[in-house]
Amino acid sequence: MRAALCDLERAARALTASIAPLRIAATRDAADLDAIFRLRGAEIVERGWASANASAGYDQDEYDDDAVQFAVFDSANVVGTCRVLLPSPQRRLPIERAFDLQLVPTGGVVQWSRLVLAPAHRGDPHHRLAMACFAALWRETYRRGFAACAGVIAKPMLDLYRGIGMDFELLAKPRWVEGELRYPAQSSVATVRSAIRVMQRLVAKTG
């Protein structure tokens, strides 16, 4: 497993570099965060998902203050975002609340959420930018010493991941979460290996 994680780190680093001149970085800058929350809000309005702040086109929740927020930058403009939610003994992660489950190992799993790309940066048949976001999330997850990641995935996205060769362990039957039928999924050794193959393939296409 250690060798696989080293391979994953190399593949993830290469993939995030391959999207230049776009770049992905963690940020706590107030202006960046405002742009992130507005981009997420616009996605909610576009898709008709429920949110307390949807009418204002602004999406911010109780987890954002403690989350690791990533922005995709096109020059100085935020054109994409995703985040890592860290486990805490004081609060269950959203996936645990929504599906009434306990991620294992306890305290060793982070949640990835709120992957959003601006409309002008969607449509790549290879999904390179989305995968570069995943690469940044992978790097942050393992840099912080966590064993695995989990997420709440809608069926179309689950089919997409499987179609490009990525596989996740499904933890329960799907439920309606944030306006869509979604599955709780967690990474495994097989996920790591499949992620390496996908990232290496995408980097090779830019060579």
Which range does the strand content fall in?
Answer: 15-25%
Percent helix, as a range, is 40-55%
Q: Please describe the biggest sheet, giving its number of strands, its sense, and whether it closes into a barrel.
A: 8 strands, mixed
The chain-level structural class is alpha+beta
Order of helices and strands: HEHEEHEHEHEEEH
Average pLDDT works out at 89
Quick one: overall form?
globular
Q: Low-confidence spans: pLDDT under 50, at least 5 residues?
A: none
DSSP summary: helix tally: 6
CATH class: Alpha Beta
What Rg is obtained from the alpha carbons, in whole angstroms? 16 Å
Q: How many domains would you count in the coordinates?
A: 1
Labels describing this entry:
6 helices; 23% strand; 8 strands; globular; Aminopeptidase; eight-stranded mixed β-sheet; 207 residues; 41% helix; alpha+beta
Structure description:
The protein has 207 residues and is α+β, with helices and mostly antiparallel strands. It has one domain: Aminopeptidase (3-Layer(aba) Sandwich), CATH 3.40.630. Helices cover 41% and strands 23% of the residues. It is built from six helices and eight strands; from the N terminus they run αβαββαβαβαβββα. Helix 1 crosses helix 4 (128-143) and helix 1 packs parallel to helix 6. It is globular and about 45 Å long. It starts with a helix and ends with a helix. 34% of the residues are buried.
